[in-house]
Design brief:
- By secondary structure, this protein is an alpha+beta fold.
- The chain has two domains: 3-160, Alpha-D-Glucose-1,6-Bisphosphate, Chain A, domain 4, CATH 3.30.530.20; 163-324, 2-Layer Sandwich (Alpha-D-Glucose-1,6-Bisphosphate, Chain A, domain 4), CATH 3.30.530.
- It contains ten helices and 16 strands.
- The strands form two sheets. It has an eight-stranded antiparallel beta sheet with strand order 1-2-8-7-6-5-4-3.
- A hairpin with a 7-residue loop joins strand 14 (258-265) and strand 15.
- Helix 7 crosses helix 8.
- The longest helix is centred in the last third of the chain and has 17 residues, at 308-324.
C-alpha cells in the first residue's frame, strides 16, 4: 500500500501523511490538480468525492461532496493559498454546508501537499495544520487517520493507465481493513453497458451465474432507494449443489456510476454486508470496483475462504463476452 506513515503531533498541532509511488512527481501533481482524477481517490472507499467547483488559482476555491453508502453527504471546500507546480500547493480546508458556506463550529485547517522525487518515483507529504488540540482531536475522532489512509491508498490505480493497471489481471481482491474488501475487474466495454448488465434482469441472467452448471432462477431488482432485490440460483441437472439466493435493499443508485446495496443470504441468520459498486470508464474499458463492508473480521475471513474471487471471475468473464457480443 502506498501510505507508509500517518502521524499526529499534538505539540505541533499537525497530522502528517507520507506515501510513496512508482510515478514521477509531475504525475502526482496532475492527479491532485485535475478534479476528474482527484475524484477517484480523495474520498475513502464508501465515501467517493465529487467536485462541483475547482478554480485552481491562488484565491480560487474548490468544493466537493463525499457521499456515503446511504446517501449521507460530507461537504468540504479548499481555498488555494499557494501554488508551486509541480512541487506542491497549499489550501485552507474547511467543512461547508449545502450552500458552500463554512460551518461556524467546525475547524478550518491549513493543508500542504508536497511532491518529492525519490529513487523509485515520488513521495507525497501531506501535512494538515490545526489551530488547537481540540480541533486536531475532533478531526481524528471523525476517522481522519483511517479515512485518509484508505483514500490515498487508492491512488495507485489512478496513476497508471487503466489497462496497464488492470488488463489481463482478472478479478483481484484486496483486504483494505478488518471489515473492508475491494474487488476490481476490468471489463472491455462502455460504462453504460456494464451498468445495464448489472441492472437489467434479462442481461443479468446471462452472466451472473458463478461456476458452470448453474442457472439463475430469480432476478428481481428495484433500484429506488429503499427498494428490495432478490436473486436465486439452482444447479443444472448433473451439477452437485443446493439452490440458494441473496436478498437485500438498494441504498443508493447513481446511474451509470454507482450502486450501493445490502446483501443477505436468503433464509439464513448470516449478517448482511454492504456492497458498494462503482464504474469508471477510460478509453473504452470500464473498471468495476466493488467495496464490500463486513460486520466484523470473522465474517470477512469466512466469506473470503469460500473461494469467492474465483467464482466472481467466472461470472465477470461471461459478462465481458456478453458485452463484446
Amino acid at each position: 500500500m502506498p501510505v507508509t506513515e500517518i502521524t499526529t503531533d499534538p505539540e505541533a498541532l499537525t497530522m502528517t501523511l507520507v506515501a510513496d509511488f512508482a510515478a514521477p512527481p509531475e504525475r502526482l501533481w496532475r492527479a491532485f490538480t485535475d478534479p476528474e482524477q482527484l475524484e477517484r481517490f480523495w474520498g475513502p472507499p464508501g465515501w467517493p468525492a465529487r467536485f462541483t467547483a475547482f478554480d485552481f488559482a491562488v484565491g480560487g476555491r474548490a468544493q466537493y461532496a463525499m457521499t456515503g453508502p446511504r446517501g449521507e453527504r460530507s461537504r468540504g471546500s479548499w481555498e488555494f493559498v499557494r501554488i508551486d507546480g509541480p512541487d506542491g500547493f497549499e489550501v485552507l480546508d474547511g467543512f461547508v454546508d449545502e450552500n458552500g458556506e463554512l460551518i461556524d463550529d467546525m475547524p478550518v485547517m491549513r493543508m500542504t501537499f508536497t511532491f518529492e522525487p525519490t529513487a523509485a518515483g515520488s513521495r507525497l507529504v501531506n501535512v494538515t495544520h490545526f489551530t488547537s488540540v481540540e480541533a486536531l482531536d475532533e478531526v481524528v475522532a471523525m476517522g481522519a487517520v483511517e479515512g485518509s489512509t484508505l483514500a490515498i491508498n487508492q491512488l495507485d490505480a489512478v496513476l497508471e493507465d487503466l489497462r496497464d493497471y488492470a488488463q489481463g489481471k482478472g478479478t483481484r481482491t484486496e483486504v483494505l481493513s478488518d471489515t473492508h474488501v475491494r474487488i476490481t475487474r476490468l471489463i472491455e466495454g462502455s460504462q453504460e453497458l456494464v451498468w445495464r448488465a448489472h441492472t437489467e434482469p434479462d442481461l443479468m441472467r446471462q452472466w451472473l451465474l458463478g461456476p458452470d452448471g448453474w442457472r439463475m432462477t430469480v432476478c428481481e431488482i428495484d433500484l429506488r432507494p429503499g427498494g428490495r432485490y432478490r436473486y436465486a440460483w439452482a444447479p443444472e441437472e448433473g451439477t452437485e449443489g443446493e439452490a440458494f439466493g441473496f436478498d437485500g435493499e438498494t441504498l443508493l443508485a447513481e446511474p451509470v456510476r454507482r450502486m450501493v446495496s445490502t446483501e443477505h443470504m436468503t433464509d439464513t441468520d448470516y449478517p448482511s454486508t454492504t456492497n458498494d459498486l462503482t464504474l469508471y470508464e477510460e478509453d473504452g474499458a470500464t473498471l468495476l470496483t466493488l467495496v464490500i463492508e463486513y460486520p466484523d473480521q470473522q465474517t470477512r475471513d469466512m466469506v473470503l475462504a469460500t473461494g469467492m474471487t474465483e467464482g466472481m471471475e467466472t461470472s465477470y468473464a461471461r459478462l465481458e463476452k456478453l458485452i463484446a457480443a
